[in-house]
Amino acid sequence: MAKTMLLPIPRRTADELALRAHVALDALRRGKGCIGDAQAMTQAMLLAVFLAELGYENVTAETLGDAERAIASTFDAGRESGEWRLDDTAVGLFAVIVTGYDRQLMNTPLWAISEASDRLDRFQVGEDYRVRDRKWA
Question: How far apart are CA 109 and CA 61, in angstroms?
């Protein structure tokens, strides 16, 4: 494995990814969000979970379940009414998730972020997104 895969991603990249999640959360908190913001929250949530499964930070099953229900409700309401928002309880849940995701981006090695991103890509196209066996060369 290349040495760079053992290092965290560049700080600027981590900041850009984290900022996108924080901005989306704020827009949804204020009721000024859009479908892209809800998608960004979903992606941040899934990446945080996938990274936690690799041993970086922790997302409880209860928090994840509550967050999944909240974002599903946001998608339903947004499609129906055009108003994309999270209620105060959901904002609190996603604040915990996004803050943890922010820390993950700063401290997690590139190999883990790459693996989590690959899993997210597979999830988004409906493929098996379970952890694949790593081949150590």
Answer: 24
Q: Is the pLDDT of residue 135 over 60?
A: no
Whether the per-residue pLDDT at 136 is higher than 60: the answer is no
What's the pTM? 0.90
| pLDDT band, very low/low/confident/very high, at 66 (cuts 50, 70, 90) | very high
Q: Cα 50 from chain centroid? A: 9
Q: What angle do CA 93, 22, 43 make, to 5 degrees?
A: 70
CA distance 1 to 14: 21
What are the C-alpha distances in Å from 124 to residues 2, 39, 42, 121?
28, 11, 11, 5
Using an 8 Å Cβ cutoff, are 106 and 8 in contact? Answer: yes
Closest alpha carbon to 96 in 123, 62, 121: 62
Which residue has 């009721």 as its token pair?
Answer: 31
